[in-house]
Amino acid sequence: MEKANEMSEEKSKENLVIIGSGPAGLAAGIYASRAGLKPLVIEGMLAGGQLTKTDEVENYPGFENPQTGLSLMAAMRAQAERAGVRFEMDEISSVDFSSSVKRLSGMMGDITSDAVIVATGAGARWTNLPGEDKYKNKGISACAVCDGAFFKGADVAVIGGGDTALGDALYLSRIAKSVYLIHRRDAFRGTKVLAERVLNTPNITVLWNTTVSSFEGDGARLTSLKLSGDREIAVTGAFVAIGHDPQTVFLRGAVDLDDAGYVRVERTRTNVDGVFAAGDCADPFYKQAVIAAGAGAQAAIEAQHYLQERGLV
Question: What is the span of the domain harbouring residue 74?
Answer without folding.
Answer: 2-122+245-309
